[in-house]
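Predict structure. Chain length: 106.
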Amino acid sequence: MGILDLLKGMDINAGVNRYQETAGAVLIDVRDAAEYDAGHIPGSKNLPLAEIDQIREIVPEREQPIFTYCLSGRRSGNAVSALKAKGYTSVTNIGGINGYKGPLEK
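Prediction complete.
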């Protein structure tokens, strides 16, 4: 990701495609439960940022690929930092659901 990518923002749609193409990947929605229940990306698991310490219940292997998202990309960026500090080695922030063009589950 170059500086121009950062300036224009992340493309969550491209991130979802990368998640779907990555064997064994887990998609984590770090918004709170009410936000998740209002609509989330199919296949995602809800783990609010405030509960990120419980990640081992969802992803026990630290090498397993994890993709995170939230509303705007800020909380998911914080989640990536927290997960890397916990020793997870393949963690990607794909941005905010506010730019997502695909179907949502409720």
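Summary: The beta strands are 26-29, 45-46, 66-70, 91-96.
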